[in-house]
Amino acid sequence: MQHASLSPFLTIATHIPSGGRFPGDSYVGPRLCAECHSGEYALFSRSGQALTMRMATERRLSDQLAGRTVADPERPDVRWTYAKQKGEFLIERQEARKIERFVVDYALGSGHHATTFVTVLDLDPPKILEHRLTYYTREGPVVL
Questions:
Q1: pTM (2 decimals)?
Q2: Is the pLDDT of residue 23 over 90?
């Protein structure tokens, strides 16, 4: 596999910590809410909304895509390759001889219907890259 670095516009300066939170965050999380609102918590934790944003490596789809290369449905000269290495989910975009690599931070969507992967580019101010392909459960990759 040919190696290339990210373009200057796609450099990740800071990684999001495991679980998506930094020390000192004031957000208490849903488990604390469950102490007083157990019924609501039980309903929410089983809902698609509760699964809408997860670490990309936690999604079964990342395991299914790892090791695969797919053609872009609208750009036949572009190939997307997926990998899992050292606990990270990676996407490589190849067009002609240009290769860009991304560490995928999050998967958006419950996974019941669709999943779109995103990469955090910067935290201050927050910037993310939404990857071009969305995976629909029954259809495979679709460009949105």
A1: 0.68
A2: no
